[in-house]
Amino acid sequence: MRSKKLSSILGLVITFVSFVANAQNDVSLWLTKADKSVLFTKQKRILKFAGIKNNNPTIVVDEKESFQSIDGFGYALTGGSAQHLIKMSPKARAALLKELFATDGNNIGVSYIRLTIGASDLNEKVFSYNDLAEGETDLEQTKFELGPDRIDVIPVMKEILSINPNIKIMGSPWSPPLWMKTSYDARGGMLKPEFYEAYAKYFVRYIQDMGKEGIHIDAVTIQNEPLHPGNNPSLLMVAPDQAIFIKNNLGPAFQKAGLKTKIIIYDHNADRPDYPITILNDPDARKYIDGSAFHLYGGEIEALTDVHNAYPDKNIYFTEQMVIEDPNENRINILSPIKRLIIGATRNWSRNVLEWNLAADPENKPFTDRGGCPMCQGAVTIDEDKVTRNLAYYSIAHASKFVRPGSLRIASSEPKELSNVAFKTPDGKKVLIIANSGKNAQTFNISFNGKLLSDTIGNGDVATYIW
């Protein structure tokens, strides 16, 4: 009798072990097809690492070789984005924010947000948190007030935090208050040296006042696009000035205030890696700096690796790229942002990928006059309570839902026309994102721990595999 019982228990154990082993071999697939027939949809078929050797191109994934940790994927929450969200009905807004920031079901799990410190060019009008008449000054920031952001950005951000309390938040200014500039104009100009100290206190007040609202600012960049003074608002800030501001004013101000917020430099295109390297060459500035941030409106994404190689102890971030599409086209160019940004930036040491921006209306409004962006499409288009999902939505979703904060990029080979990047998540899952840049459908293998999986994806298609 005892022998029979033991045999039965042993059989159950063997069945359970076999079930677990098979489950570990199961691979789920989320797909976006360039012809729009499938848009970030989980496929019903279950794939397995059970293939036999063949002559197909093979992506070898190796978790023994790892690179940078990942902080997250997401968007800029501009004042314009928040303006549209706050005008939605509470029910519709709650549903959209859950879809964007929750990770269960078909929600896409956005894990990183970039806020604008004051107005960006995607606000209805220009403002700072300390606007004064020309000739007036406020060196101690006694008149600092988050004012306009209390109407939309702060309440929306609180709703987001109720869904994901651990979301990473970065702040970036487009311009200091006008009274601090060489010209009393939102466009261009430079920061007057006599106001460096006052501007450092402005950053401190922003972080402290947002903290009082329950919004923890994890990082700040010093200036959005410091070499593009034609935007509205904007500021010209050359590398030597940024270094002086950090080492003499901002770094010491953060230290004095006990702030742990990261200081990130540059925040502009990949065509000028010399800008962050110049600043990092200054040891007195470098000690306060966490890393460098990039956009890709110019230059090559590989420049991020050049900066990493120059200072491998400093982090790399990808903080902005406009991603747009014509909704009337019968194809979606998902290949471009996935290959250039999601794959390109992370394979070149970036800890995050942020696209520009979260939301706009059907006319891409609002944007400022004299230099705002009339073509900046949101990841979602909001028309009262109606929501349309755009290219930026799907491109971020392929990474944000699965590559959770704390994931590690791991090694993966790149066969011709099969751009890809691989990650290991905190719970041990592997995520492989693939973009087929060839002219035809491609059948290929994924090799992991000596086992093969074979699959086919169409030209221009993007697939995320999870096991």
From TrEMBL:
Coiled coil: none annotated. This is Glycoside hydrolase family 30 beta sandwich domain-containing protein. Residues 70-403 form the Glycosyl hydrolase family 30 TIM-barrel domain. Residues 406-451 form the Glycosyl hydrolase family 30 beta sandwich domain. It comes from Pedobacter panaciterrae. Residues 1-23 form the signal peptide. InterPro entries: GH (IPR017853), GH30_C (IPR033452), Glyco_hydro_30 (IPR001139), Glyco_hydro_30_TIM-barrel (IPR033453), Glyco_hydro_b (IPR013780). It comes from the Bacteria. GO terms for molecular function: hydrolase activity. SUPFAM superfamilies: (Trans)glycosidases, Glycosyl hydrolase domain. Belongs to the glycosyl hydrolase 30 family. Keywords: Glycosidase, Hydrolase, Signal.
